[in-house]
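Good morning,

Attaching, inline, the backbone tokens for the sequence recovery test we're adding to the shared suite. The designed sequence is right after.
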């Protein structure tokens, strides 16, 4: 039962029950009918197996169809991806310099991810919507640079093709940013040609130089490039996080994650390292009483000796500030959304996917039940209470978020089977087994071209193949490895091509896609 899109649990459960009833009728079974409580674990196990099978099918199809596309090779063929990583790292250094200058200027001193409830419905906001506690507009300077938008790019056009075209027509550009391919539009991409600030008065001239011009495709045909002037969004709505993220225990856990991701990405891009800069700035704010004053204002309404579990202590306030600065740093320098857990080519693609970032809900809205669930999410505990729907959704969301974070930090520990992969040894044995015929318990005949030798067992045949047919063995190994599937943004959404990190759907240690 493999549909074009993965079915939900409820749909699968109804199908499963029907299948069991049909099977029981065929077998004329007199067994008593199982209760819903007895059926549920069996249905869940069957659904988990179905998802693994579905993901494996989609993974293989996806790679078979796209492995020759330029965008795919840019990400997963080391001969193409490594030079691009070097160029990207150079661009990140420019972004780091922008960010560092803003930190030194105090631009982020009042920045916070804290949200407050909107009390009215002005501007279309519902009562439950959040708005930032700080109204200061922190605009990414890259968004203000003159930029041309390429409206569509076919899979057969590579980044190098476009860069050569831009250099030929415009001379030089600051950066070429490309979106992820859109599976809903035949895996076409968008592009942003970022120019230097000095080019802003001449942006219309630049537009005329490239709009409607042609780029040669692989097959020799002409691809007409359609370009417009990119307009950035002045004010972007922010997404409200689940209230679990406001718990001190989650703040501490997420700060630890943020530190690890920043260190990993900074190291990959050979950047000075943002962590020391953030630590020094927060220490300076604490020394000047800047953070303490904000906390004191919250406490002013409390009587002496009164305890309030909904007010952050000084340590939590400091951790929040560090977390907020690191989350914003990841967006500015690495085009990485910490809570969506994906990385983009530049802020233009990031803004398209997650326009304004995220806000925490007020600490005062954190109930004792929600804090208990937050603690469980940090400690590795379980929470299964279908009667408390919202808390269950929040817990599941947090656990999925943590899984995606760990895929970035520890790809070698990713559950490849869950993502649609299999060990190379298993795939290799499955491929080999197609070329031997078991005639009886002690007769295994080789089916390789021009070979019909008979062996007493499978292992004897396998040794024969390894010794007498080494070229064929090497070919099979290459074919198995070529079925690798990149890690995707969301584990159950294999076909979206929203990819943030490459791992092998086979042996992480030996497959060339992991280099």
């Amino acid at each position: 039962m493999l549909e074009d899109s993965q079915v939900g649990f409820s749909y699968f459960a109804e199908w499963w029950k029907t299948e069991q009833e049909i099977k029981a009728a065929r077998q004329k079974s007199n067994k008593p009918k199982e209760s819903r409580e007895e059926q549920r674990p069996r249905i869940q196990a069957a659904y988990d197996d179905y998802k693994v099978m579905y993901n494996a099918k989609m993974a293989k199809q996806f790679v078979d169809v796209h492995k020759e596309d330029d965008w795919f090779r840019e990400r997963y063929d080391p001969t193409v991806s490594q030079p691009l990583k070097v160029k990207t790292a150079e661009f990140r250094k420019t972004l780091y310099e922008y960010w560092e200058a803003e930190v030194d200027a105090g631009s982020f001193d009042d920045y916070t991810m804290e949200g407050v409830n909107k009390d009215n419905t002005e501007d279309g906001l519902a009562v439950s919507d959040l708005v930032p506690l700080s109204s200061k507009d922190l605009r990414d300077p890259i968004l203000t640079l003159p930029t041309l938008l390429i409206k569509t790019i076919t899979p057969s056009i590579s980044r190098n093709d476009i860069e050569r075209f831009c250099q030929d027509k415009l001379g030089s550009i600051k950066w070429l940013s490309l979106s992820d391919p859109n599976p809903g539009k035949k895996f076409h991409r968008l592009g942003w040609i970022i120019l230097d600030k000095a080019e802003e008065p001449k942006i219309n001239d630049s537009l005329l130089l490239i709009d409607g011009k042609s780029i040669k495709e692989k097959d020799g045909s002409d691809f007409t490039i359609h370009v417009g002037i990119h307009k950035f969004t002045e004010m972007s709505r922010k997404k409200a996080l689940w209230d679990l993220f406001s718990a001190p225990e989650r703040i501490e856990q997420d700060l630890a994650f943020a530190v690890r991701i920043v260190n990993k990405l900074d190291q990959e891009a050979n950047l000075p390292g943002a962590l020391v800069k953030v630590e020094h700035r927060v220490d300076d704010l604490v020394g000047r009483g800047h953070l303490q004053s904000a906390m004191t204002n919250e406490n002013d309404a409390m009587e002496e000796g009164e305890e309030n579990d909904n007010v952050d202590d000084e340590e939590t306030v400091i951790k929040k500030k560090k977390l907020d600065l690191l989350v914003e740093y990841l967006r500015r320098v690495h085009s990485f959304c910490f809570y969506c857990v994906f990385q983009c080519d530049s802020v233009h693609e990031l803004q398209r996917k997650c326009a304004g970032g995220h806000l925490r809900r007020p600490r005062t809205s954190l109930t004792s039940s929600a804090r208990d669930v937050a603690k469980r999410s940090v400690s590795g505990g379980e929470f299964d209470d279908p009667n408390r729907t919202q808390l269950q959704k929040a817990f599941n969301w947090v656990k999925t978020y943590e899984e995606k974070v760990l895929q970035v930090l520890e790809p070698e520990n990713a559950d490849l089977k869950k993502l649609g992969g299999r060990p190379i040894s298993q795939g290799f044995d499955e491929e080999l087994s197609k070329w031997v015929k078991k005639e009886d318990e002690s007769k295994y005949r080789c089916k390789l071209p021009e070979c019909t030798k008979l062996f007493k067992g499978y292992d004897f045949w396998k040794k024969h193949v390894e010794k007498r047919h080494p070229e064929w063995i090497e070919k099979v190994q290459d074919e198995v490895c070529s079925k690798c599937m990149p890690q995707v943004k969301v584990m159950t959404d294999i076909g979206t091509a929203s990819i943030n990190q490459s791992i092998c759907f086979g042996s992480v240690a030996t497959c060339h896609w992991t280099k």
